[in-house]
Amino acid sequence: MRGSLENPPPAEGRGHLGGGIHVVGLAPGADLAGFRAAARRLIAADVAPENIVWQTEAPSLFGADSAAADGPPLRLPRAVTELIPMVVPHRDPERYGLLYALLWRVVHGERALMEVASDPLVHRLHRMRKAIARDLHKMHAFLRFRRVPGEGRERFAAWFEPDHHILEAAAPFFVDRFRALTWSILTPEGSAHWDGTLRYGPPGRREDVPDGDGFEAGWRDYYESTFNPARLNLDAMRAEMPRKYWRNMPETAAIPALVRAASARAQAMIEKEPTMPAKRDPVRAVAKMSQDEPETLDALNAIIARSEPLVPGATQAVLGEGPVGARIAFVGEQPGDQEDRQGRPFVGPAGQLLSRALEEAGIDRREAYLTNAVKHFKFTLRGKRRIHEKPTAGEVSHYRWWLDRELDFVAPKLVVALGATAVLALTGKQIPITRARGPADFGRPFEGFITVHPSYLLRLPDEAAKAAAYQAFVEDLRRAQALAA
Amino acid sequence: MDEKLARKLRILADAAKYDASCASSGAPKRKAGADGLGSTTGAGICHAYTPDGRCVSLLKILLTNYCLFDCAYCVNRRSSNVARARFSVEEVVTLTVEFYKRNYIEGLFLSSGIIRSPDYTMEMLTRVAKKLRRDHGFRGYIHLKSIPEASPWLIEEAGLYADRLSINLELPTEASLNRLAPEKDGAAIEGAMGQIGERIVQAKEERRRFSPAGQSTQVIVGADATTDEAMIRKSALLYGTYGLKRVYYSAFSPIPDASSALPPQAPPLRREHRLYQADWLIRYYEFSPDDVAGAADDGMLALDIDPKLAWALKNRHRFPVDVNRADREMLLRVPGLGARAVDAIIKARRHGRLRLDDVARLTSGLKRARPFLIAEDFRPTTLTDRLDLRVKLAEPAEQLSLF
Question: Is Transcription set as a keyword in this record (chain B) (predicted)?
Fold first, then answer.
């Protein structure tokens, strides 16, 4: 429906009637391209609004030529360029004239005209824009698809009667929403078809759409059941869903009966005496329901093991390891690649380094409890390698509950936080390790101790620095061991 | 659709309808993937209206209305004699997808009675959301009711799939909860709201998805003796403390098979309406709870006039307000001027002084605003002092009542 041109006039030359009047013929419906071309040309030729006659329902004579007749693009405030496509679909024949009058004033000194919503012209255009927005909204809301019977790919069709020329403005919404479906929307003015590409076609007829759908009865059931007869408010319903839409909405057939019965139903509810429960009280089930909390570490671990990762990645949950009642517990960050494969904590390179350091510090790894703040491996794939990715503060919070319960069950005397993530999980705060290293108060029923994560030692590039850091780490573990004794 | 499923749908939609929430707004804009279904538009869409004037936006159903709890106000309490039913996860998914394909709904609002245990119930709710997202590539709106008695890690998981989570406070005081909802625990409710609120903020900062359309709650109006003022103060606290998106007020409605622990008389629907208006004043009009309290008498908002007008009538010395000079905060206090009208006034007056005709084009509430404002060519010299102003502006009392 694009394309337009000033009508070739009889005598005075193209687009002119006697007295310098220009006649512009645009295609029926919403001819945005035609209006744009005409407006550019007319502004460039300095033609005042009062010298133009806009013919809206004229057949398009030279459709494809409109681009050739374009004037230079107009530089306009965004408020204006956004308004135009929202007014062009209006069925008011004056729409083009009003828009052109706006353009004329804007390019003649009133650049900020759109801000003056109290101006009669701006006010009127705003109201037209609002009418289009409402029409679009109602079409998106009230259109109902029916399934077209047949084999193969599901096909849907709908019949809708918009107030304005909005089919093309409304269609993209349905593409975004029902991209994987095949559908047609028929209106008295034209039709839109989607099967992976969007095409527009000639007007349809109501009869071209199936006269029912297998889910319509269920939908009406839902509509009836969700209505509360004690709150009848027909004005509110009609204000938002005017009658004119009803005939294309299957559920509205239920309205008369719902309304008729409403007051009697409401009255019956009010008058009805409270009844005695027909079933006996499920005492045991009620008592049992509150015992949902896991009561042992094993029970908690079973829950963690069957839960899905709350971070992207991970093949399995890596549970804590070590005896309940251990005097000392170590909390790391999250499982790494090896831990994720083996399902055990601290078995990768950093874990092996930790084992060595524990041994040197005189701590028997089998008697300590080892776990992680986050129970699942989070990574990004680079080629075939799974590169560890640090959990965010929010992700650490997702896992906090499990760590808390876990440590409740283990009830160690001392908990060693290995690295910043562990500190965050235990305290809820971001604390720099270098400053906080050593004994710490986590505000918990156990003593706290902060040191680096062993992976930090692996990352140090300089061998001498690495050795020194390792010694300091072993020293920290000795101090922790002494505190836990 | 077979009759067995239809029967369940009737029971479980009827059982869910006392939850006032219907919003499908606030989710980030999404489009369907190549093989998927569904989108969100930001503002939400009401796909139909029922004769109670309420919008039908989401498929609002319970997974089951069997319930171990015995909350007096609830139609589904275990001691109620209503018909019971239970959907399978698969059935809810099918209904959602098939209704959605026909453009009946924006998505799903799923809640449930508590069966077996809070954890079990919460897991089932999340399973529905997960199945929709994963197996059907569903990108429409999902609102899940969270069960505050469930283990906290289940809420952590639910937020990854839902657009909105909500926990209904139902009764605004601990005493009322104890009396009318013995299995509920106010501290657990607010604890879970805090958890959700914190996680939503974190996820926003980290650009991850966790209940991106926020959380909401519902309180029942008229089931206990809580005043409007106390209700609004509670709401302001909830908005402030947990970052709630919405507090819904639901006038306690007659239900089939009501409990004798409830007041025999339902509150006027207009009371609910006034609470919504007061709530808006707090959220969009820079009113404080103290301002709302100031508009009320003995803690109750007037039924015949709206709370903004009530405040203005009690603060006549602050009026009339000059539309050409007043700041935004004071313009927002003028009865009849909405927030959008105020912003339009402020923009327009930069380009010239506004006359009464101009103001008339910027608001549809001029009739109510007139006694309270000054324009270039207009001064309401006597009007603000007239004693009968309230009578003149009050709404007829019978509107909105039952019949």
Answer: no
Whether residues B52 and B184 share a domain: the answer is yes
Contacting residues of A for B157, CB less than 8 Å apart: 307-308, 310
Give the pairing of strands B58-62 and B107-111: parallel
Shortest distance, CA B260 to any CA of chain A (angstroms): 6
Residue type, B260: S
Q: Both A366 and A432 in a single domain? A: yes
pTM score of the predicted model = 0.93
* Structural domain boundaries, residue B72: 3-194
Per DSSP, the residues of A355-366 read HHHHHHTT--GG
A371 vs B145: CA distance, rounded Å: 33
Choose the final residue of a domain: B147, B177, B194. B194
Considering the domain architecture, whether residues A75 and A221 belong to the same structural domain is answered as: no
Q: Residue A367 is encoded by which pair of tokens?
A: 């008697």
B96: phi then psi, degrees, rounded to nearest 5: -60, -50
Q: What is the dihedral of CA B270, B271, B277, B282, to 10 degrees?
A: 180
Tell me the shortest Cα–Cα distance from A144 to chain B, in angstroms. 6
Compare CB distances from B98 to A143, A215, A236 and report the shortest one's residue.
Answer: A215
Q: In total, how many domains does chain B have?
A: 2
List of residues 6+ apart from B188 with CB closer than 8 A = B148, B149
Cα separation of A194 and A420, whole Å? Answer: 53
Three-class secondary structure of residue B196 per DSSP: helix
Residues from chain B contacting residue A240 (CB–CB below 8 Å): 46, 49, 53, 55
Q: Same domain, yes or no, for A187 and A122?
A: no
Q: How far apart are CA A346 and CA A339, in angstroms?
A: 7
| Residues of chain B found within 8 Å of residue A246, distances taken between Cβ atoms | none
- Which of B17, B59, B153 shows the shortest C-beta gap to A401? B153
